Structures are given as C-alpha cells and as structure tokens.
Amino acid sequence: MLPLVLLGVVLVTFFISRVAPGDPAQLVAGPRASPEAVAAIRERLNLDAPLPEQFTAYVGALGRGDLGQSIMSDRPVAEEIFSYMPATLELMLCAFLLTVLVGVPLGVLTALYRDRLPDIGGRVVAIAGISIPTFWLGLLLLLLFYSVLGIAPGAGRLDSSVVAPPTQTGLYVIDSLLVWDGTALSSALRHLALPALTLAAASVGVVVRLVRGSMIEVLTQDNVRTARAFGLPKRQIILQYALPNALVPFVTVMGLELSSLLFGSVVIESVFGWPGLGSFVLAAILNLDFPVIMGFAVIASFAFVAANLLVDLLYMALDPRVRGLA
C-alpha cells in the first residue's frame, strides 16, 4: 500500500508542478536575465526534457533518496526540509499534547453531565474550535495577547536575548530540559503557547465530540450497567470499564489528526512567524520552488501512511474483536 500511495502522490505533484503557470527557470535567472541564461538554467534543471523522461529521472532520484535541489537556496531539498523539521515537530507535539490533555477530559466531562451546563459549555468549545478558521483565531490571539496586553512574545522560537540550548534533538524545550537551562525553557514555552493553542483548536473540537459520543454509547452498555448494579464506585466504573472502551475510536482518529496538524502548521507558522517547515514550504509555493513542494508532499505522504499504519496496529492491540478478525 505504501509504495502505491507514494507513487500516486509523486505522479500528482509532478503533473501539477508541470502544468502550473510560471517558469521556474525564469524565476531562478531573474527578470533581467537573457534568454540564453534562462535556457541554460532550464537545461540544468532538466526542464527541457520530455515529461516522461523528467518523471522517470525524478522517480529514479527518489529511489536513491535524492529529493532534488531547492531553486531558492540551491541546496539539497532533503537537507533543507530536515533543517526546518525540528521546529515544526516541536510545535506539532505541543499541539498534540494539548489536544489529548484538553480534548479527552472535556469529552468525558460532557458525556457524564449530558445536557447540563458542563455539556453545553463543552459543546460550545468543540463547535468553536472546529468552526473558527485557524488563521483568524491566530490573528485574534496575536492582537489580544501581543498587541493589546503585551504579554505574548513576538515571532521566533526564543527571545532575541536568550541563547539557544546546545542542539541535541533540535526541540528547544527538550534540549533546555536536558541541560537544565531554565531561561531557555521559559522562553521556548512562552513562544510555543499561542501557536500550539491555535494549531490544536480544531483537533480539540474533533476529539471532544468524538469522545463525548463514544462515552455516551459506552455508558449504556451491559458491562457498565452490571458494574453499577454491583455497586462499584462511579470513579472505578468510569476509569476501569467506560473510558478504555470509549477511547478506542479516539485512537483511530489520531492518525488523521496528526496529519491535519502537519498541514495546519503551514498556515499557523506563517501567522506567528514560526521558523519551521510550514513557513519554508509556503515560501517555496510563493516562489514556485517545485522540488521543495514535491519533496514536502512525498515526506508528508509517507508520514501520513506510517501514522495510519501505526494507528491500525495500536487499534488491533486495544480491541480484541479486531485481533480475532486479523
């Protein structure tokens, strides 16, 4: 399945890159370049070859792990992508942590207090998170906490006066903890807060609605009713019988949510000036840097398929019924 998906993504992105308006060779050469210089660059980028030959050469390079050269920087695309990856990965992990820590408890709470005030409040939060565009929410938070209140930091991952911790993982929060640099840790967390909250908003809404519906269904099942009939404490019934079963659908959705966080980071990083992969890819799109765009599509597709494969394996481990069918 994985090779077919990746081949399909490569084929689609390659086709789009070739039919899109604009000439990458002219963009590299500049507006005042001579036709001869543009032709030389087009030949160097292999843009003058027939499309089947270009596609075959690109697939062959991918098989060797070569994603091509960035038109903007003239550096290998793989190096560029992986140099920006730690910042995006840190933002995604923080947003995912917020999604789990806020979405799951809020979903359980709304199910336990169905049609009462906590349920109404939780559903309002879920609907708002799903409905409000992330870029608008990000701009609103920046306006409030940065421009009006002045308590949120500006762009970047650290304050300009703070020295970055020694690079071990590329994730400033973890690197700060490893060397116990409290100043860098505090600055990294402050810079992460608003982008991660904005990125997690839609995922929190999805998780709240999913966990709420699943929890309501589980609470009506026979095993939970039997536990109540035996007089077991409500806390034990929820944690031991209801919650594990209610979280099974949540696990299946996590692969999709991780993918949505990756693609959502393109917008969020641009709004908050976060120097990650999303900002880099957006710049590549604006500058028609097709090797970077295609390289990002391949890596994102691989991550998407791998995440869903991991979710399927985890789902089999959690649900005995699925193990019996496998």
Automatic annotation (TrEMBL):
Domain ABC transmembrane type-1 residues, every copy: 85-315
Intracellular or extracellular location(s): Cell membrane
Spans traversing the lipid bilayer: 89-112, 124-149, 192-211, 238-256, 262-286, 293-318
One Pfam entry name: BPD_transp_1
Keyword vocabulary terms for this entry: Cell membrane, Membrane, Transmembrane, Transmembrane helix, Transport
Transmembrane recorded as keyword: yes
GO CC terms, sorted: plasma membrane
Membrane topology: Multi-pass membrane protein
Major localization class: membrane
Listed GO MF terms: dipeptide transmembrane transporter activity
Family the UniProt entry places it in: Belongs to the binding-protein-dependent transport system permease family.
Protein name: Peptide ABC transporter permease
Species annotation: Candidatus Viadribacter manganicus
